[in-house]
Amino acid sequence: MKALNSEIKLGAHMPISGGFHRVPEETVKIGGNAFQIFPHNARQWRAKMPDKETIIKFKRNMKKFGIDEDAAFCHSGYLINLASPKEDVWKKSVDLLEKEIRICGALGIKYLNIHPGSHLETGENAGIELIVKGLDEVFKRTDGVDVIVLLENVAPKGSAIGYNFDQLKKIIEMSAFPKRLGITYDTCHGFDAGFDIRDPDGVRRLLDEIDKTVGLERLKMIHLNDSKNPLGAAKDRHESIGFGHIGRDGFKNFLSFDEIRRVPLILETPGGNEEHAADIKRVLEIIGE
Ligand code: MN
Ligand code: MN
Ligand code: ZN
After folding, report:
1. CA 160, 161, 166, 170: dihedral to nearest 10 degrees?
2. Ligand of minimum distance to the alpha carbon of 221
3. Catalytic residue list contains 238
4. In angstroms, how far is the first alpha carbon of the chain from the final one?
5. Most distant CA pair in the chain: distance in Å?
6. Is residue 2 part of a domain?
7. pLDDT per residue over 194-222, tens digit each?
8. Looking at the 3D structure of the chain, how many domains does it have?
9. Is 161 helix (H, G, I), strand (E, B) or coil?
10. Catalytic option among 43, 46, 143, 258
11. Structural domain of residue 115, as residue ranges?
């Protein structure tokens, strides 16, 4: 059994409880040809490098199950906050991000997705400066490791940075390593921030906005999530594809754009592999309609 042979790269966030090397096969089993994983337990500061045997098996299975290297992603742990004004948290975040990049590098995973960070009421500019400083430090330490960090657009919630493209642009422009930065677009977070992708004009506006800020070529992944809440709600509650406020017709419109379909689509919808298999089926149906 090989991965879905399609122009479209589609998959889900996958569990790593069976070991990294199991992920390519599990991806194919749910009908996907792309995946995202955590490089370690996402709720812990601890992370260890995979052993040699795991690395060899993982790489072998990537080939065996036909997963393209541009369709495999890591998502950074939840504790990392590069915008934190607390020095110990910031330092631990830099150290863990370095480790995550090394794990990606060892596995041959090219992209690591991060949430830019939360400034905790010290203000957006102070937060952005800390994010840039942290990223520069990590990139300096991992010089030569071929991993690109993707800044994910987040919901405009609390003091989170990165809910609009001007903020992501600032980070990239201020960075000493802009070549090592790309972006991820999360459809639920974007809907929370007021990007209405349910009609063609809305998608056009979104694509134009991305292009005139960070540049469309930086868009390396889409987190394909429906939203439990209406446009602009800023709640960050993901829903299964077609069952939320973006809805089946909304995704049909969104996915009708070539600029969107050429980007790997990763589901972070509720449930596990079984629910994600159903979501993948639904997305393929929607695209095929
Ligand atoms: Mn995320
Ligand atoms: Mn996401
Ligand atoms: Zn979310």
Report:
1. 170
2. 2
3. yes
4. 26
5. 52
6. no
7. 999 999 999 999 999 999 999 999 999 99
8. 1
9. strand
10. 43
11. 10-288
